[in-house]
Amino acid sequence: MVALQILIDGFAISSLYALGAMGFTLIFGVSGVLNLSHGGIMVIAAVIGWLAAGDLGLGVYLGTLVGVIAGLIAAYVTYFVVILPIQRSKAIPRDENEIFILTGTLLWGIMIQVGLAYLFTDNPVTMRPLIDGVTYIAGVRVPKNEIMIAVICWVVIGLLWLLVNRTPAGKRLLAASINPRGLTLLGFDLSRIYFFVWGIYGLLAGVAGVLLASFLGVSSASAGQLTASAFSIVVLGGLGSVSGSLVAAYIVGYLETMTAYLIEPTLRPIPALLLLVLVIYVRPQGILGRR
User: CA 174 to CA 235: how far, in whole Å?
Assistant: First the structure.
């Protein structure tokens, strides 16, 4: 019975991890940016969605939509206020851009965390379930909301796959991740492509944030942990590899779920971090990474 419970709960949390990590790895693959404020953007979406659904009386569905839009806006603010000025600065050598972006987004993430705690609350917040009630799977009691969240995650992941692989805009994203200079020589504007990919990222982070608030709940203090989880998944799967992030998300999700059920909930991140260290030693490029 416990094994089945782990299987079901692990699938739901892994789907959420996969959705959150998809945007993180997409941004790196296309624009080469490791956004260490990722968890903060997810928490913004969660807290704003919670506020809109509860205090503003919009209800869970409109509140969820408002939260997703908040995540989109937060992503664009991060891009235009933090990242773009660093990339365009003449005072920063080009070969040092990455370290400045890492530092800038890390500090921005801390500012988001402190700002949310000051403006709203540092207590955990939980949105109402998207759908009420419970069902039973092979005798295991499962909230319908948990099933709904897993379905939504996979629908969004499927739509992302269709966008990237079946549309001209998606093919430009792939080309930008492989050879941005060649794409520029063909007459495409990289700034428009980056603007587009940051919009996709903001939507993915927003959806993941509000779903997480509906499933487990979040607080301002969750920002750093969410960033660390996404970073671990992306490195474990292979930097820039979307399929690798998907595989790694399920490995991490199930490891954490098994640890929480069989050992101690407070120790749930430890096995995944140990696995990450092992993979870095044995296969530095990650599970499906090429470099």
Answer: 19
